[in-house]
Amino acid sequence: MSEPVAFDPWDPQFAADPYPGYAELRARGRVHYFAPTDQWLVPGHADVRALLTHRSLGRSYTHRFGHEEFGRPAPLPEHEPFTTLDANGLLDLEPPAHPRVRRLVSQAFTPRTVERLAPVVRRLAASLVDTLLADGGGDLIADVAEPLPVAVIAELLGVPPADRGLLRPWSADICAMYELNPSPETARRAVRASTEFSDYLRELIASRRCSPGDDLISAMIAAYEAGDRLSEQELVSTCVLLLNAGHEASVNATGNSWWALFQHPQQLAALRGNPALLPTAIEELLRYDSPLHLFERWVLDDVEVAGTVIPRGSEVALLFGSANHDPARFAEPTRLDLARADNPHLSFGAGIHYCLGAPLARLELTAVFEELLTRAPGLHAVADPPRKPGFVQRGLRELLVAA
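Now predict its structure.
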């Protein structure tokens, strides 16, 4: 199948508004080979959802194949320790390691844990909005969207307040490696951040082993079932994943959501007038402009999509942003409808890698929305916001607002 000209993730115009390109991609077929990244693009909702739960695909292949056997080069030695940090995170583990680690982490990351955090999340959100409103406005990203999830994850993990300023730069540098074809400089920054973050967490874990606290690291150290425990590397990788996934996605979701509302003033007015819309509004905003647009999986055994056989050793790129705008699943997908009830968006994934932190992300979004909707009824954007340069993780650099 020919290369899809509708898909150009490095074109700033495409990255700014990929949805028309997605529509063209879906119209041209259900699967497309994309030579620049050596990936098979899958744009439709039904196919993306099916492949997220397909046993012939995995986030990793090393549990079944060596690199040469799978037809893939080994990771570059200079990418250590990023490679080890990434490979041992829950998101990149496959059975039998994945269910063991997820089961142990889930024992500590329960709905009760999230509910215990609710007063903390609301207090932090209120404090950040206090400052924003006292100043008459500011940058909604830097002043609210970024500090809230960092503080929440740090509170959850038990990172001392004095150290929390370290987390955001580490997270940003590591997450930059998940964009398509990252540069050598991006890799160097990710390696340095991986080293520093891992060293910091090992010291924190050692401290919690001696003096456990009421935090997630202590709970994960204590978590066990039938003799299974998390290794130190699994603990480190899980902590990094919780920060990176929970933080980056929450920041981008908050910014994307408010910019979408500012562009649809009638919908924003409806939400301000009827706060009961908030639960469906949050799901619709996550669908409308998802913070994650591409999720990669390896083909462990040949898989067929719409008559096209994708061979073992290939990589598929599941286009979440396109799937969430598929008219075969969503009525009028380009329309923002905060009352949309039938909304099986894929912004949190599906299958065994469904986002463990989804309840916490929803809690954070709800807290920010409640504060801004009730206390800043005149909040509005004062300029079109610049977007971050990446395509995979979709978000804003800043969102300047006035109250």
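The longest strand covers residues 295-299.
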